[in-house]
Every structure is written in C-alpha cells, then in structure tokens.
Amino acid sequence: xxxxxxxxxxxxxQPDSEQSIRQARTLVExxxxxxxxxVCLPENFAFLGDEREKFRQAPYIAKAVExxxxxxxxxxxxxxxxxxxxxxxGEGKIYNRSLLVLRDGSVAAAYDKIHLFDVSVTKNDTYRExxxxxxxxxxxxxYRNDDLPAIGFSICYxxxxxxxxxxxxxxxxxxxxxxxxxxxxxxxAHWDVLLRARAIENSCYxxxxxxxxxHGEKRETYGHSLIIDPxxxxxxxxxxxxxxxxFDLDLQVVEDVRRKLPAITHRRM
Length: 269
Hints:
By secondary structure, the protein is α/β, with parallel strands linked by helices. 30% of the residues lie in helices and 32% in strands. The strands form four sheets. Strands 5-4-3-2-1-16 form a six-stranded mixed beta sheet.
C-alpha cells in the first residue's frame, strides 16, 4: 500500500453522549463519501464536559463506542480510529483509550493514554486527569499489517513527550496519530509547533484530529485539526469549525524523506 486517503474529523462534542455520537457518525459518513479509507476521530469524541460526569457515564459511553465504531466501519467499508473514550480500568478508574477498527468491524489495536494531563494552565484553567484516569502501560503501540500503513498511537498530552514518538518510529510507524482536545491557551502557544516537530523528528505523517469550541459550561478547545507530512509541512488545517479534512497520504514520501535527510540513522544516543 503506497497511498491511502485519510480523514481527520474535527468535533464540538458535548456532555450529551448521544448527541456527540450522532455528530461523529454524520462526519464519519461525510469522510467516507469523500473516499476516505482511514477516518480518525478526536479525543473525547463521545463525551466532552465535566470529568466526574464522564467517569459516572463511562460504562454507558464505552458500551456505545464499542458497539457503534465496528458497525460504522463495516457499513461504510472504512477503518476508523476512535481517538479517545473512557474504558474501564477497574479499581475506580478509567482508561483514556484509542481504538482502531478495521473495515470488517474487527478491533485491530487499542492504546491507553500514558501521560495524564495534570496541569494548571491558568488560575481558572486547571486539570487533573489522574483523578479519574489510570495511565496506560508505558509502551509504544504500533499497528502493522498489509491492510493499512503502520500506525503509531498516542493521545493529546502525549505529544509533549518526544521519546514516545521515537519509540513508535523505531517500531515501524509511518503515520503518527495524535487525537486531541487541546485547551485554547496551550493550543495557541504549542499545538502547531509540537505536531510539526514530531513529524520532522521521525520523518512520519502526523494525523491530529481535534476538538473545537465550547463544551458544556467550562471546557473550551483550540480546534485546528492538522494533517502534516514527514517534512513538517501542514497539508490540511481544519480551522475552528467542526468538519472533515482529507488528504491522500503517499507513503513513498516517508521513504524519500528518510533517504534524503537520514537523521534517524545518524543518532548517537
């Protein structure tokens, strides 16, 4: 497989999970209508609002996601990356899980977010993801098979930890997925530069589907879902509205960049 039409979905998900899932379905269908073969949804695509409420609803949300994504994939004949939803971790915690579903509806791979967003961006903008979420095992997850390019998994805050992406590249990743719900302050300051850096450092495509706008009473996200090539060029930017961006990823470009600028092979540490 040398070329694959890939879509990043930008959403304004809400605390109403049924509404959020319907919105996601509509845009997944739109991506499929545009010929996308791999469709990537952002973090918290099925619910975005108060973290305690998400925790309370987690069993219902997880059941709905794990029922709907395989159905959509098989009905639309596409692969879907469900960028982040609450899956049970036991012992009073949940995982923030990204799930890859193939065209036949089978689950190909899953990744539980490693790095948890415990920060105080401003006095009134504080997050403690670890209050409800259990971090995943610290290992790089790459899906490799003939039916898709080699896909490396990560979620949102992971993007600040370049060692994860180096491990993904070492395990063969051609595409790095970074489904996110970036805050507006951090998005304005860091979103573009971090994602471009991860693409350049590893000579990989980056697919970063994102949340945008206001979510419930307090949450606000940056938007600007991006598709970036291995040279660090932004190929598509979704701006601040909900919608779909699509690009034909030419995997030969990965090989060409790694040959022309072989920094990966020049490492000494």
